[in-house]
Amino acid sequence: MTVVQSSGGKWFDELEVGQIFKHPIRRTLTETDNILFTSMTHNPAQLHLDAEYCKTKTEFGRPLINSYFTLGLVVGISVGDTTLGTAVANLGTDKVRFPKPLFAGDTIRVETEILMLKPSKSRPMQGIVTFEHRAFNQHGDLVAIMERTGLQHKRPKE
Fold first, then answer.
1. Are the CB atoms for 63 and 130 separated by under 8 Å?
2. pLDDT, tens digit only, all 158 positions of the chain
3. How many CB atoms lie within 10 A of CB 49?
4. For the chain, N or C: smaller number of CB within 10 Å?
5. Could you tell me the residue ranges of all domains in the chain?
6. What does 23-73 look like in DSSP terms, one character per residue?
7. Judging by beta carbons within 10 Å of its beta carbon (0-12, 13-18, 19+), is residue 12 exposed, middle or buried?
8. CATH class for domain 12-153?
């Protein structure tokens, strides 16, 4: 099997434990993002859709950005620098936390740290990588953190 690397993704052999990627893409979150994602995923929570409810019945005073949108965006921002064209499969996500809320108008930036590398015993041309993705708002506050484990191609032998 021939694997062609797209721009940006790293082969398993190019990664090092402790390596940190500071992804250049930043994203300002909008009310439309939140309503569209929340509606598409059939999440009727008033915390994401009802400004009046949030104004009068929550400590936040306005709708929160859907946390699952945040997770998808965090991983998506990381792909170009880490797994684009080199990933085999996403194996799981663990230790997901949201230390601070996000709101429409907030801008996030993401960094990824390599926590663990393990060559696959059953797939000699692949390895298991554990990434820690961290998202920060425009004030530098940590707003999301998670570990994600994936199966990654090794550099093809020529």
1. no
2. 334 444 579 999 999 999 999 999 999 999 999 999 999 999 989 999 999 999 999 999 999 999 999 999 999 999 999 999 999 999 999 999 999 999 999 999 999 999 999 999 999 999 999 999 999 999 999 999 999 999 999 998 87
3. 16
4. C
5. 12-153
6. -S--EE--HHHHHHHHHHTT---HHHH-HHHHHHHSSSSSPPPPHHHHHHH
7. buried
8. alpha beta
69: Cβ contacts below 8 Å, ≥ 6 apart: 29, 33, 34, 37, 38
DSSP letter for 106, please.
-
- Residue 81 three-state SS: helix
Rounded Cα–Cα distance for residues 13 and 127 (Å): 9
Cα–Cα dist 60/57, whole Å: 9
Single pTM value for the model: 0.90
